Amino acid sequence: MLKKNTMSDLLLVPEKRFEKQIEETRKNDGIELSILNLGPTHPATHGIFQNILLMDGEKIIDGEGTVGYIHRAFEKIAENRPFYQVNVLTDRLNYCSSPINNTGWWLTVEKALGIEIPKRVQYMRVIIMELARIADHIICSSVMGVDTGALTGFLYVMQYREKIYEIYEEICGARLTTNMGRIGGFERDWSEAAWRKLDEFLEEFPAVWKEFEDLLARNRIFMDRTIGAGAIDAERAISYGFTGPNLRAAGVDYDIRVHSPYCSYEDFEFDIPVGQNGDCYDRFCVRNAEVWESMKIIRQALEKMPEEGGFHADVPEYYLPPKEDVYNNMEALIYHFKIVMGEIPVPNTEVYHAVEGGNGELGFYLITNGSRVPYRLHFRRPCFIYYQAFNEIVKGRSLSDAIITLSSMNVIAGELDA
Amino acid sequence: MSLTNEIVQQTLSQQFTPKVENFHIEHDMLAFEVKQEASFEVIQFLKEHTEMNFNFLTDVCGVHYPDYEQNRQFCVVYHLHNWMDNIRIRIKVFLPANKPEIESIVPLFAGANWQERETYDFYGIVFKNHPQLKRILNMDEMESFPLRKEFPLEDQGRTDKDDRFFGRTGPNC
Amino acid sequence: MSNSSNIKHVAPPDGYSGEGFFATKLSEVVGLARANSMWPLPFATSCCGIEYMATMAATYDIGRFGSERMSFSPRQADMLLVMGTIAKKMAPILRQVYEQMAEPRWVIAVGACASTGGVFDTYSVLQGIDKVIPVDVYVPGCPPRPEQILDGIMELQNIVKNESVRRRSSDEYKDLLNSYNIK
Q1: Does C54 touch chain A (CB under 8 A)?
Q2: What domains lie within chain A, and their CATH numbers?
Q3: Domain ranges of chain C
Q4: Containing structural domain, residue B44
Q5: Is the ipTM reported for this complex over the cut 0.90?
Q6: What are the two backbone dihedrals, phi and then psi, of residue B69, each rounded to the nearest 5 degrees?
Q7: I want to staple A12 with a disulfide (CB 3.0 to 4.6 A). Which of A16, A277, B7, C143 is the partner?
Q8: B134: nearest CA in chain A?
Q9: A335 and A317 in contact (C-beta within 8 Å)?
């Protein structure tokens, strides 16, 4: 019987706290517990975070996580960089779906500056965000397969992630950390090749995703591993601040795209897939179903795409003018100079904006004070908030359940530490 | 009838003045300030009152205002969200520079645990009755609080980068 | 044997061949054997790790360069691929992993963050892993394309092929390790 931890015990390093408990159980019950360090570098932890577990054989009695092994001080850097340069930081939050982070940042800045975006640009942003969501879920689901031993699914669907990378390259030039968009829209119009590749992707991918789902979703071994592992009930999940697929797997249909629509999501019809028990199997199924919904949204956006609107809003103080104007027109030259030096007109305001990221509610809290850099920028990172619950979820389960729970929660280290 | 910003403001003013003040609406979100001692009861009221129903804690963060007066230097900002009526609310609690302490809301929202640790790690704001208030993102041995404005961004001991090439001379570093 | 005409045959090393034997220098054979079967330890910390996953996957396939088995145990790995930002909190762990690797061992710093700290010139990020461990190849990029990572691995294969078998016991190498305080 473990004594409850005192306040001062909890401030120690986890190993010391567990050593005390080991001594106690050895004296009182004759059971020998052990400490396992699921260390920062481990094939199962996708990203570096450490978990020190107190084990009774294979069963986990207690655990404590240590994060911060990739703390890059984004919030401090953002206080020293003009608005355009902060976009580079947002890429590296949830780096599996960078366009969502980029668009979320631009929506926050545009809310603070009071800029209206044309419909066509909003639809283009929706397409790119849903493509990024598909890319994120491809990685999470296929890596869940890898962690249970099924490497084939990963190798198969990664080829289609390469197709998504090609689409990103046509739009912004980069594969992974896209740095996409500007205040008011995109930096260049999408080329004909980008539209063509998007159509090809939408034609080929459904069959591939169906095959991937058939591989794992009704597979006896996969179901036995994942059903019941890492379950959390809806009340506890809401108290912990879960959002995104992890919360929807627990049965709560909260999705920011439907609840408080941004960027024209209200124009599209799509369902919110919801699970029942909040365990690993439900999270896997919810993510797979969300990929189907994302493809539905992209198709609707392509059909309804307006012809007029260009690729950016008409805001000369914030958006770089075309080079012909800069060389011929005095005003354009002055705007160009001011934008590049970062001296754009910024009001004194505070704004919070949230988008539905791959892992849940990704929020940006921005305080500006009229200068060229934000006064304070805080990222509400979904991974950081729901990873707190990990130790509670795996208490009493076996070690292999802990591994599969870790990968089903889709903890991305960049978003965890920022 | 469903909740609106005006109803929230009225109910809070009736119940808690003079501990709450400075209600204003910024970009459709109601924001107000609460005194240091009353933060826990105001948030508890917002969570548990049958009409208010703010069931979700979106965010906890800190801000450092070195230019404000001495008893308003640090600020803890809470963002709450009512899912039923879709109302968001921002609560700012200003703390004095010499004693930045505030009551922890972990008993109300389990998700506040790590977020308050992060705020402590960055600013040195002490959350009373927090179950495990130690550093989370920085190294445990670190003594200073890095996100305060006086702490420099770059590691001052680095030798491989020449500050002159980055435009960082003495005064504007 | 295949009959297709687009197979490029690589020339064998210099040596004397006869009926059923081929005589060459030991270092050539050892270099050839080592270079074509480098088992990596993917020390993936952030975004570069995702590009490494793309390199591992079918389109870019690092397996054809001999790196078929990713070893996560340092004792069984030949090359340490450090991919991503190393924070100061992580540096002692990186060093421990490097010290646990058995000779011969090589290190590739993949990405701008591992080479010099990258975009993150802050108080918490180590400005380049060569502050704690000796590095053989630096691959720039943020993140580098898979082709670039493969280019870095090919560069390392070149180094390995031409390395002397006595390098690990030479004074120069010992001085290098001493400068990092690695026993």
Answers
A1: yes
A2: 7-66 (no CATH), 74-314+345-380 (1.10.645.10)
A3: 41-179
A4: 5-109
A5: yes
A6: -75, 165
A7: A16
A8: A11
A9: yes
